[in-house]
């Protein structure tokens, strides 16, 4: 049941973003920023954690989950290290995901030889 719930929640988030892309003139980069900031704000309001516990990977994998991870990292680092935590907390919390994206992106580019659109 957890897999189905994660699939449905992740699919709904993606469907809402697709509707946002088609019905507004917002560029994809701005929509991505909107999602990350929304996840951070929902985390700060204490609304994202219960949703995350209920939805599982369906809520943690999209960009909303990335924003929430950044918020939690900054919050923890602020409590432990003070003002310096503002600068390093989010990156420390999300470092595994960021590193994974970079490494797998590089490996994909080596294996599949991407070309520029012409």
Automatic annotation (TrEMBL):
Highest taxon listed in the record's lineage: Bacteria
Keyword terms, alphabetized: Membrane, Transmembrane, Transmembrane helix
UniProt entry tagged with the keyword Disulfide bond: no
InterPro entries per UniProt: Spore_V_AE, SpoVA
TM region(s), chain numbering: 31-47, 91-112
A Pfam family the protein falls into: SpoVAC_SpoVAEB
The protein's name: Stage V sporulation protein AE
Gene name, Swiss-Prot/TrEMBL: spoVAE
């Amino acid at each position: 049941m957890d897999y189905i719930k994660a699939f449905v929640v992740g699919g709904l988030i993606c469907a809402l973003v697709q509707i946002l892309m088609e019905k507004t003139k917002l560029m994809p980069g701005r929509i991505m920023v909107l999602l990350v900031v929304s996840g951070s704000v929902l985390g700060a309001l204490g609304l994202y954690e219960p949703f995350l516990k209920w939805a599982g990977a369906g809520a943690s994998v999209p960009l909303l989950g990335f924003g929430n991870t950044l918020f939690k990292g900054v919050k923890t680092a602020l409590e432990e290290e003070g003002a310096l935590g503002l600068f390093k907390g989010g990156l420390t919390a999300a470092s595994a995901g960021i590193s994974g994206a970079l490494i797998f992106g590089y490996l994909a580019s080596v294996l599949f030889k991407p070309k520029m659109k012409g």
